[in-house]
Amino acid sequence: MIGFLSGTIHSKEDMKAIINVSGVGYDVLISQTTLAAIGEAGDSVRLEIYTHVNESTFQLFGFQNTKEKKFFQKLISVSGVGPKLALTMLSAMPLYALAQALAQGNLATLTSISGVGKKTAERLVVELKDKFKDEIISMPLAANDETEYDFRLADVTSALMTLGYPENYAKKAVNGLEIRDDDTVQSLIKKSLVRIQK
Fold first, then answer.
1. Whose CA is closest to 12, among 4, 23, 20, 1?
2. Please, what is the angle between helix 95-104 and helix 83-92, to 10°?
3. Each residue of 93-107: pLDDT tens digit?
4. Which of 39, 126, 171, 196 is the Cys-Cys partner for 43 at CB 3.0 to 4.6 Å?
5. 78 with 110: CB under 8 angstroms?
6. Which residues pair with 4 in a beta bridge?
7. Which secondary-structure segment (H or E) carries 5?
8. Whole-number pLDDT of residue 1
9. Which CATH architecture has domain 4-63?
């Protein structure tokens, strides 16, 4: 099995990158978060790899660090959660916010993720709730997570995509926004547009 890949980015598209390792192009599925973080074509990159093999499939899933990879492995340990759905979950919000939703049994947040129905959300909570209770205490917050994940950001991301911006651009613009208690979704959209236009 492949543990990691170290090379250069040949190309990127939605939730996928081709990594050139000594002249061999590896097709790697990655989360939107990792896609936005790894750089552009020609940049050096190192990805932690999970190899998914079954009777008809051989797929590589890539992660920017071991924390994201272990999170992914916990998600796919739950019945009904395949690797692609787990990747969608990792793309939906920061790790801290997802861990918090699981630890708190927040079904509304979990079912807001594309592909996660009520029964799947309930299984995720039952099987993973205790695994994440201690983890969210020790998990360092991302730069944009100085407080608990603000779910206004999901609305802002959706609004930017409605305006025609690709999802990875929308998420880049939202990542790191300074948020005040009196900020509305509309004011956050304006802030995001300023960041995009810089």
1. 20
2. 110
3. 878 788 888 988 889
4. 39
5. no
6. 48
7. strand 4-13
8. 76
9. Beta Barrel (2.40)
Token digits of residue 102:
């699981």
Domain 4-63 and domain 67-138 have a common topology: no
Mean pLDDT of 126-152: 57
Which residue in this structure is represented by tokens 């793309």?
91
Q: What is the pLDDT of residue 159?
A: 78
For 60, other C-beta atoms within 10 Å of its C-beta total 18
Nearest residue to 172 (alpha-carbon basis) of 35, 3, 20, 2: 35
**Domain boundaries, given as residue ranges, for the chain:** 4-63, 67-138, 152-197
Is residue 8 within 8 Å of 44, Cβ to Cβ?
yes
What is the identity of the amino acid at 194?
V
Tokens 């998914």, residue located? 52
Q: For the segment 36-53, what is each residue's pLDDT rounded down to a tens digit?
A: 888 889 999 999 999 998
Residue by residue, what is the 3-state secondary structure of 62-123?
EECCHHHHHHHHHHHCCCCCCHHHHHHHHHHCCHHHHHHHHHHCCHHHHHCCCCCCHHHHHH
